[in-house]
Amino acid sequence: MFYDDTMKKSDGSDQPASELISKRIAELDDWRGETLSRMRKLIKQADPDVVEEWKWMGTPVWSHDGIICTGESYKKVVKLTFAKGASLKDPAHLFNSSLDGNVRRAIDIHEGEEIGATAFKALVRQAVAFNSSSKKKAKR
User: In this structure, are residues 105 and 98 in contact, taking their beta carbons and an 8 Å threshold?
Assistant: First the structure.
């Protein structure tokens, strides 16, 4: 089976990460699946070159020159954890979880809540730019 750079996995499975993420969304046949699907679409719109990965025994991960964010689903929340969120500007105040950490920031989405598409995509683009600038600095 052929895998391209947009479908990485690290769990030893034979399925591409994009298929595993789609399967996870389908398994969550309630608001959590709908929410994760919507956020996935927004991430791909914000960064058409995003790489989908499947890590840590079943966590969807979106990367571009490093991790942008993970997408976890819990009973009462869908959590999008931005790996370097503490370094990002958040004028729309999307981050509402993991605010005390020095590196990560998260967005917890509860049933019935909507995250503004424009603000979220801007945050994703900012995370990509931060990762890309960090990668360039590391090469020097």
Answer: yes
Helices (H) and strands (E) in the chain, counts: 3, 6
Convert the pLDDT of each residue in 17-38 to its tens digit: 999 999 999 999 999 999 999 9
* Residues 54 and 13: beta-carbon distance below 8 Å: yes
**In terms of C-beta distances under 8 Å and separation of at least 24 residues, what long-range contacts does 32-35 make, across chains too?**
32/73, 32/78, 32/111, 33/73, 35/78, 35/109
Q: Which domain holds residue 131?
A: 7-139
Six-digit token string for 3:
């895998």
Specify if 118 maps to a domain.
Answer: yes
Residue 39 has which token pair? Answer: 């956020």
> Which residue type does 109 have?
I
Q: What is the pLDDT of residues 82-136, one digit of tens each?
A: 999 999 999 999 999 999 889 999 999 999 999 999 999 999 999 999 999 876 6
Number of domains, the chain = 1
- Coil/strand/helix, residue 116: coil
